[in-house]
What we know:
The chain has helices at residues 4-12, 21-25, 30-37, 41-52, 58-69, 73-82, 91-100, 113-122, 157-169, 181-184, 203-208, 217-224; strands at residues 16-19, 104-112, 130-133, 135-137, 143-146, 174-178, 192-196, 212-213. By secondary structure, the chain is an alpha/beta fold. The chain has two domains: 4-28 and 84-224, HAD superfamily/HAD-like (Rossmann fold, 3-Layer(aba) Sandwich); 34-82, DNA polymerase, domain 1, CATH 1.10.150.
Amino acid sequence: MASLLEMKEIFRNADAVCFDVDSTVIREEGIDELAKFCGVGDAVAEMTRRAMGGTVTFKAALTARLGLIRPSYEQVQKLISDNPPQLTPGIRELVSRLHQRGVQVFLVSGGFQSIVEHVASQLNIPTANVFANRLKFYFNGEYAGFDETQPTAESGGKGKVITQLKEQFHFQKVVMIGDGATDMEACPPADCFIGFGGNVIRKQVKEKAKWYITHFDELLKELEER
């Protein structure tokens, strides 16, 4: 297992940095915001708590929550326009600095493609670098399920995405940053995991992550060390 010093070295020399989105890059949990917007906030928040506790599989929790919300295409678009996701302080500067250094930045999320792509556009991250779940709609815009073939629809999906990126781009050092257990589980194949507690602190992640931060300024300072 890498020491904290070794992890900092990996981060400073990373080929790619993968960020979780909900409660990491943005302040909210996208699915909970969508549920509130569709009038089923409390019921879905309770399901989210159970899912975070690891008592049900990610796919089962996602299926159940979306079955309750049943968001239409119009509702998703209206959520983005009326209540756009709030970027976490410091993320814009950190992503910009990584880009300046020639580091590839990816958003790897259990959230929804349309919301995550909106976030990516705010950070100048290309759409091709977004991995998230895709909602499906009928021709009339009604909810028709989600694309179950996406790796992010399953437990362990973030690790699968990182393996895929390593194979495709021959990255030597990949860093995963996130607030949740699904982010921590992606290391390995990620070479380093940085736990983030700036928006919400997950006890399990705080206790187990060797490198745990509460503000992205801490990572910006690391990059300035060189």
